[in-house]
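Sync notes, pocket subgroup
Present: LS, DG
LS reminded everyone that the earlier model was apo-only. Rerun requested with NAP included. Inputs:
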Amino acid sequence: MEKVNIVLVGFGRVGRAFFDLLKEKYDYCRERYGLLLELRGIVRKKGTILLSSTQRVLSPSYFATEDLHDLAEWIPAITLSDLLEEFGSGVLVDCTPTNLITGEPGLSVMKMALEKGWHVVTASKGALVLKPEELKNLAKEKKLLIKASGATAAALPTLDIGMYSLAGTEILAIEGILNGTTNYILTRMAEGLTYKKALEEAQEKGIAEPDPSLDVEGWDTAAKMVLIANQVLGTELKLSDVKVSGIQGISHEVIDKAGKLGKILKLFGKCYRQGPDSAWKVEVGLALLDYEHPLARVDGTNKGIIFYTDSMGWVAVTGGKSDPRGAAAALLKDVISIYWHNF
Ligand SMILES: NC(=O)c1ccc[n+]([C@@H]2O[C@H](COP(=O)([O-])OP(=O)(O)OC[C@H]3O[C@@H](n4cnc5c(N)ncnc54)[C@H](OP(=O)(O)O)[C@@H]3O)[C@@H](O)[C@H]2O)c1
């Protein structure tokens, strides 16, 4: 059995789902992988909670007195730095908000973890798209890992396919429908709704954020494509290298025209290069897909990715739960992948 210290930073939708999943899967991970996944502390903006072990959290007596979700005892005095030093090493799970302009708070959180000898598993995208070299070099210097499935379409496997399943192939191009909100809006528009109505519906269902700009302007897709390219192709692209256009305010005429041409309109992220010696480019924008395209039927909040290779042909994967629980499951998978030696 291997004991794994976990510190969770961020206790919003994804952080809470990760906490719940860790409790649910604690015994399964011990039996199946020989891993004792011990949550040592949770840090959020309003304070920190220190836990002696996941077992304590799991014990019925603990829950008989307090439900951690509503726990009032968030202690501002204990800092993340204190927690990381107290437990020495392990994995920090970052569920803080994504900021594509400053990369914070994820950037400071990840740097601190790596400097103190902790692996990082993250759901937030900002730091990795703004400072990919700095974080990669720091992790390399400290012989630690940064895993970002939670930030790259989460429950839809993207990095794992590119890194492991396609090892040894030359990847020629990557395309993806990587944002559930925009795909939902386009799907509902194809069914007759206006952009405004489709967006309102997505917001009512909790699919779209109250401020949906990162999604509808294409930046979320761009960030995911950059992360995938940097990991899978070894590029060092930044968000500022990407040509981005979104779907905001798209008219019904455009959707109708696509239908008349026998095509389907999708917000697509593309990574490609002109030839083996050319630089990789990432672009995000509306694409007209033939019905035969492997991603044409990816509807609603579903996502999909396709890799074009020299020796395995094209490989596409679609689906994956598009919600906080799906994101939490991707984080858990990344934690397991660091410590389970058969991965
Ligand atoms: N929602 C999804 O389905 C989904 C899917 C995949 C990836 N993601 C990514 O996952 C991340 C979290 O998303 P979410 O929906 O869970 O966000 P959220 O509900 O807004 O929660 C964010 C959490 O981060 C905490 N936080 C903010 N600043 C902090 C700081 N400086 N130090 C420590 N904690 C801080 C907040 O603390 P307080 O609670 O004290 O305010 C809150 O608990 C984002 O990067 C998002 O892009 C989300």
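DG: The first helix runs from residue 13 to 33.
LS: The CA atoms of residues 217 and 246 lie 4 Å apart.
Action: DG to write up.
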